[in-house]
Amino acid sequence: MTSSRRLRRLVEQLGAGSPAAARCEAANQLRPLALEGALAPAIIAAGAVQALVDALGDSDPELVEAATAALGNLTCRSSEASAAVVAAGAVPAVVGVLRRRSSTPVQRRMAATLLRNLAYDSPAHSLAIEDVGGIPALVACLAGTNSDEGLHHQAAAVLCNMAGMASHLAAAIHEAGGVRPLVALMATSPDELVQWEAAGMARRMTARSPARCRALTAAGAIPAAVALLSSPAANVQHEAVQLVDYLAQQSAERAAAIAAAGAAGPLVCLLDSGSSQVELDTLQAIGSVLRSFPLFAAELKASGGITPLRRLAGFGSGSLAGIHAGQALQLLSHQAAEDVGASRVAPATTPATAPAAAAAPATPAPAVPSRPPRICANPGCGATTGLKRCSGCRAVRYCSVECSRINWAGHKAERRRLQAQRAQASG
């Protein structure tokens, strides 16, 4: 029997007129076939997608589970299949599985997995999920008393993708009450995949929204993020350190809270993580905390931060890590200069019995800026004004197109590597 004939037979068997056991058997036979990407066009052409979507509304829990799993397998490898599944009306049916009280934990987990596949890199599909009330249903999967880490992972993955897709989707997650269960998962979940997706979702929700940033802070995101810096998983470290960076940029109060949560030690450890991406993210986070809260310099030094910063600064001016490490060392040296200047100030009062001529004038503190200026990344320039971010990496600045061209030979490999790694991490 040819593949096309077999597929047509399975689709006929899935029809509503077939016995429940026969329909369930057909859906289960389609599950492994759907994983074969080369078969996706034939499965779609045979009409299997519509038959599987129709089965999602059935009262037989085994059939619903098998149909959801088959659609999840089909969409995990093919954007064409995802489009066909959405066109067949799957989104409201899948959200219905999440909402249905009679749905089993396995059904909900598979439904969330299917929504994750559909939302991946697709604004249109993400909007379709929002339009049928999918966001509150997914938030409910994060909250409550369920301890299904698989469901937590898949629901957080969908919401993480949607939060990064558009600001209004992040706002809808906030309005649906997603902040508190999100932070709770960051703080309490033992599953590294859940921690990763939750931290990534929190990072995306902080973007361009002081209100969401305040809500995350009030829910305890800062100590949760700092705790995740010590995770053994590089992907969790990556998201957690970027979240710390984002939060530190928002205000001096949040940067001080990051310092108070004990971030110095874990950040210093990450400078020797062995992952160039994590080390670069860590350098950026250290710079953000120091700029917003200069007193963090003392904790950073006490945690042994000078040695790894000097090592990374030795990578050279064409390296992003070298540039950020050098800037962090500058921030530390300026804070040290301020501390020395402050220690030289004489007491403001003199004994009342001393002659007026005996009162020595106080030595003024040197006029040192509280934070060093940003510097053009072209090592031969040194300009501090008129700087614009590199459009590719968004991590270094140049004062002119000419300086960008001059430094291109030293910067291009690092820029391309950073672009590739960030694309992979956000995917």
From TrEMBL:
GO MF, any single term: zinc ion binding
Positions with biased composition (Low complexity): 342-362
Keywords: Metal-binding, Ubl conjugation pathway, Zinc, Zinc-finger
Ranges of the ARM repeats in the UniProt entry: 47-89, 89-133, 133-177, 220-262
Protein's UniProt keywords contain Protease: no
SUPFAM superfamilies in alphabetical order: ARM repeat (SSF48371), HIT/MYND zinc finger-like (SSF144232)
Sequence ranges assigned to domain MYND-type in this UniProt record: 376-415
Superkingdom: Eukaryota
Region annotation (Disordered) ranges: 342-371
SMART domains from the UniProt entry: ARM
PANTHER family listed in its UniProt record: U BOX DOMAIN-CONTAINING, U-BOX DOMAIN-CONTAINING PROTEIN 4
Protein name from the UniProt record: MYND-type domain-containing protein
